[in-house]
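[User]
If only I could read backbone structure tokens as easily as an amino acid sequence. I have put the entry right below:
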Amino acid sequence: MKNIKITGLMLTALLAGCQENKSNPEEESGLGAVSVDKVTVYTTAKDTDKRLTITDQLTFEPSVQPYENEVSVFVNPNKRYQKVLGFGGAITDASSEVFAKLSQEKQEELLKAYFDKEEGIGYTLVRTSIHSSDFGSASHTYIEEGDKSLSTFSIEQDRQFRIPLIKRATETAGGEITFYASPWSAPAFMKSNNNMLRGGKLLPEYYETWAMYFAKFIKAYEAEGIPVWGVTIQNEPMAVQRWESMIYTAEEERDFLKNHLGPVLEREGLGDKKIVVWDHNRDLITRRANVIFEDPEAAKYAWGIGFHWYETWAGGETMHDNLALVHESYPTKNLLFTEGTNEGFRADRYHYWPNAERYGHSMINDFNRGTVGWTDWNILLDHTGGPNHVQNLCFAPVHADTRTGELIYTPTYYYLGHFSKFVRPQAQRMSTSASRSFLLATSFINEDNQMATIVMNHTDEAILYNFHVGDKQTRLTIPARAMQTLVY
């Protein structure tokens, strides 16, 4: 077996350049165009040293009919669906503050670990906040309080930590990244509760001013040499939080989009920027989609709908079928996972395996329901799960112990890498199914025709399974509590 060492360690590059691919959602492409001969298997497994480790290099043989009770994963490369926007995470004030405390050597290690497609896991997607979120040392905005004209607008505070990290991440990713931003709250004076924290609503007299605030943010960041792909209208618009938060009903968000944000961005020469609605959990996503996308004047400004995973807080199921319904109802609108993190930070749980499995479960199910991109929350936090100015402490895939200067790579980092390393932007999802529910699977074909199937075993037993791709097959084992990426 060959271990791929990441971050203080190194990954082998597998992904080559790109070529033109098809763009329609469900397409047929003859298998003759795809050579399916050999497969390389990468594995990350609990209670082992396997972390994106090459564990098998197999040869395909002609496929045969499986017998009853055989465990199989089936891939049909002729059936292709949505194209992938990318995978990534959020560069918050917290992440950039912690990053600034690292040595130059550790900074370079972290950048390569996330954004280098050869030595790391190849992130291509970055989210940030429009002024502050809870993850940072304090609340802040870009204007003086009460400045209705926005004449004092300045992103100077972001130039200290956040903007330098975004620029270095982009450079490490090869000079190009998909970058978008979300607000957690308007400035206090624009809100019904006169407070950036604890919910409250945007006062109607400030709808136009707040829309201009978005435009000024985009222009200011682009003046720094950071192209802005798009924005979401509001982070978690139905959650009253003890940190920065603001509430929109579906009707209020629809009207802000169609009467203010959409027209203002067009008027300011920013009509090419993508606007993402909702940006909250899967449980209520269908009503938000129905209200906004059924209105043609609002829908024309919306690229798609964003979602989080926190509906599982109450102990219920992850509501992935709601995504499928939105995708079926509004096939021209895109689904984007905009945030997920493991809550309740504890330093003795850096390597708590269910944290990684939550990611694997979500990513496979989200993409199989039509999702085009997946954005983790903070890319880096410290040894306390912060900084967070209201002590809403959480996990990140990588933590920095700022007392020792060391980086701690959690299993979540590797589970994310099973996707982001091998599934590049513009890849298309392919038809994939498993014969048993204890295996989760999804597949993609990159623009260079290299294919990747991701398989997750969330049981306590190793599983022997047949892997069928078109008219070829091979046979392999996935360890207990493991993720595999099969590259072929």
Summary: The radius of gyration is 22 Å.
